[in-house]
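During the practical work, I selected for study one protein's amino acid sequence and its backbone structure tokens, as given directly below:
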Amino acid sequence: MTVAVENAAGRAGVPSGAPGPTTWLGGRFRLAERVTTAGALSAWQGSLWRATDALLCRPVAVHLLSRGVRVPAHVTAAVQAAARVNDPRLATIYDTDYDIEGPYIVSEWTPGTHLEDLVLSGLPSPALAAAMIADAADALAVAHRAGRPHLCLSPRSLRWDTGSGLKITGLGIEAALSGAHAGDPAAAAVTDTIALGRMLYALLTGCWPGDEPTALPAAPRHHGHVYTPRQVRAGVPGVLDTITCHALQLQATSAVLSPAGLAVALRAVLRPSYSPLPYASSPYSSFGPAEPAGSAAVLAQDSVSRRARSRAGVRHRTTLLHPVALVFRCATRGQGASGSCPGRGPAAAWAGAGRCPCRRAARTAG
């Protein structure tokens, strides 16, 4: 690797920050501005820079690693594996050079606002918060299927741009540099799902429920337990409160956590349905592995369920984030076999039964 410093006195390859000497890496990448200081990314003393790819005339992000230290094999393997993960919502790795005189990793520069600044500037609507985390969960589900979990998600890992949408940075790189690892795929899925749940909590409440330091105010606690989103901020939809609590494991649950399952739960909120889908008995009873959204099986099941609801006389009366307002009532006006219809209330609607448990035809509350 060739490191060149123009108009500078001192040792090549050790830029001091912008503005200052022009530093080129490999004769192609020109460092422009330091984003994080050395040591902020990991104990391995890497720093993140915004740079320009002079060959393709585009901005890039450069992880400038410590000079004079050979890059460990597990880091090179993790970067290679992350570079093979293909999803437009994940920052792409472009180039690497592990020369001991100045190793670096070049990846996609992600424009937009990271989650910390987004929350501090004003909370998004619950619908947008759910859509953002659903996109992030979908992207991480792709990474998990490729065997490459993130493991180091933080408020600065997620960026949002009104033009290009959502981007997740640091896949493979941050975990490798910090030494984070999971014992098995299930543990990795839980780690990333909890991190996504923390981001959803922050977007809904403006507070951070984790223990790591951030620019966001800490979530209020009672006897060491984090308050639920609805306890912190009025107006949080009950269904999003439940999903967030499941993702953060704030309540005792046997649900299997995974980014794919979280994405399914949030998509069900944004596009509610009466029908039981093939991946789970209810939209948020389990965050386990699921079929990809939009698959043929899901679309076919949805089409069949809509026709069945039409024949049964069930009408779809709900708003975007208030599916719990649905109420099933028995045709016998609440008088089932035991004298009262157990299908009354929102739980039956989200169980996807489509009819009363007492086997009578169901209809929505008028």
Q: What stands out?
A: Confidence is low (pLDDT under 50) at residues 5-14, 273-286, 289-299, 308-366. Residues 202 and 208 are 5 Å apart (CA to CA).
